[in-house]
Amino acid sequence: MKLTPLLLVLAATALSAPLALSQTASNPAAKPAAKPAPKPAPKPAARPAAKAPAAAATEKTATIGGGANAASATLPILTRDELRACLKQEETIRVRLGEHEAARAPLDLERQGVTTKQEALRLERVQVEAVAAKTTAFRTKMEAHAARVAAWNRDVEAFNARAPQGAAGERERVRINTEREGLQKAQTELEAERVAMAGDNEKIVASFNAKAKEVEAAVDQWNQRNKDWNEAGARLEAERKGWVSACADRRYREDDEIAIKAGR
Q: What is the structure's pLDDT at 18?
């Protein structure tokens, strides 16, 4: 009686590999915060500045920045309307700088939250890497089992080809059949392990990839808000420098300042 070769089902059944991981989200890099733009120097008590040669002897002048230099002495004295505009602009810039600096703390706090999510994702990635290691180990077991099945099939072919007789032939038949039972049992166990691993692996990898997308989105959003904050600071600094150039060291009449404060 001839023996029937054993077919290996598992040899052609590959275990699903983990999904491709998002490289950007697994190790996102948040941009460092830029330093806030400096405020205009606080206005000190006005003190007399050098008078222009054409100024009247009794006319008192000062500068918004409190200082005087050779260049400011050659510039025309601010008119009352120009002084009013400079003082208003100074206050506006000062308020906006305060609001801009106040917006930095919430942004930094948000960054800490994003960093915490990144760290949690790195820890979860360890589980995904463990899944990959288990998958590799299982494939090795499958390959070893496939090699046993191939060897067993060769023994069956050889047995059927020479049709051994007597006690020696019977012993060989018993050995081959015993090996067949062992291979079938191992194949059943491997299939059960494959099904269990496939379910667990899909859950772990799907969870990781979903969280990786969330972290990637959070990093992108934070980077955009941080960029907007930096650009707003740069615009404020440019405006502050323009104010310094146009107003800070320009002379004005103290009588005009008194009139402005009086609402005139």
A: 32
* Residues 174/136, Cβ–Cβ less than 8 Å: no
Task: Say which amino acid occupies 68.
Answer: A
Of 48 and 68, the structure prediction assigns the larger pLDDT to 68
Q: Chain-centre distance of CA 255, in angstroms? A: 57
Q: How far apart are CA 171 and CA 152, in angstroms?
A: 15
Distance CA 215, CA 24 (A): 9
d(CA 78, CA 55) in angstroms, rounded, equals 13
Distance (Å) of CA 53 to CA 60, 63, 176, 257 = 13, 17, 121, 21
- The set of residues, in sequence order, having a beta carbon less than 8 Å from that of 244 and lying 6+ positions away, is 40, 65
Q: Are 8 and 145 in contact (CB under 8 A)?
A: yes
Asked if 89 contacts 261 with a C-beta cutoff of 8 angstroms, the reply is: no
How confident is the model over 204-253, as pLDDT tens digits? 888 899 999 999 999 999 999 999 999 999 999 999 999 988 888 788 88
Distance CA 6, CA 184 (A): 9
Q: What is the per-residue pLDDT across 192-217, written as a single tens digit (0 to 9) for each?
A: 888 888 888 888 888 899 999 999 99
Q: What b/e readout covers 49-77, taking b as 16+ CB neighbours within 10 angstroms? A: bebeeeeeeeeebbbbbbebeeebeeeeb
